[in-house]
Amino acid sequence: MAVSWAARQKILLLLLSGLSLGLTRSPKQHFRILRAVPKAWRDIERRALYRALREFKERRLVDLTEKADGSVEVILTENGKKKALAYKIDEMKITEPARWDKKWRLVIFDIPEKKKRAREALREKLKELGFKELQKSVFVHPFESKDEVDFIVEFFAIRPYVRFLRSDFITNEADLKLRFKLS
């Protein structure tokens, strides 16, 4: 039975978050470890976890090292970290506050042609997050989104080409308020 995409995604994200996972054949040690780990780990079926970890090892996403006490240390490789970050970027959302602070968040960029794929990916991700395109290289959003934009910029390695601004005034603001359904 194959491990579901959602389970693999959850395991990689948990590993990325820095949670340690001890795998052991000893039932006593197994229960000690399970008591110490968060609920998210306990929700993953043990056989599925082993299958996923074998698959991750084959794909060079994790390294497994047996320790002296019989447990196995799971270490996320650089490829594993990149894969986990890709999952994280797919789940990203901008939180809408109870009240709008009347500030606009603008993302402006001038990404060179040699990084065209990153430029197109940035545009698509900004649209997915609800940004509206003002011009080809200028996007706007009414809610705080600096952390999300920083994450995207780092993920696509385009930091030198992207700027994030907050503004309390934009001409033709009424049109934007209608597009974002703001009062």
Task: Summarize this structure briefly.
Helix content is 45%, strand content 17%.
Could you tell me the strand content as a percent range? Answer: 15-25%
Arithmetic mean pLDDT: 81
Cα separation of the termini: 52 Å
* Unreliable residue stretches: 19-23
Number of strands: 7
| Class by SSE composition | alpha+beta
Rg estimate, integer Å: 21 Å
Question: Which architecture of the largest domain would the CATH scheme give at its second level?
Answer: Orthogonal Bundle
Element order: H for helix, E for strand: HEHHHEEHEHEEHEH
CATH class of the largest domain: Mainly Alpha
Describe this structure in words.
- The protein has 183 residues and is α+β, with helices and mostly antiparallel strands.
- The protein has 2 domains: 5-90, Orthogonal Bundle (Arc Repressor Mutant, subunit A); 104-179, Alpha-Beta Plaits, CATH 3.30.70.
- Helix content is 45%, strand content 17%.
- Helix 1 (5-16) packs across helix 5.
Feature tags:
8 helices; 17% strand; three-stranded antiparallel sheet; 7 strands; 183 residues; Alpha-Beta Plaits; alpha+beta; Arc Repressor Mutant, subunit A
List the helices and strands and how they pair.
Blueprint: H1 5-16, E1 22-23, H2 27-36, H3 39-42, H4 46-58, E2 62-66, E3 72-76, H5 78-91, E4 104-109, H6 116-128, E5 132-135, E6 138-141, H7 146-155, E7 162-167, H8 173-179
Antiparallel strand pairs: 1-3, 2-3, 4-6, 4-7, 5-6
Helix pairs in contact: 1-5
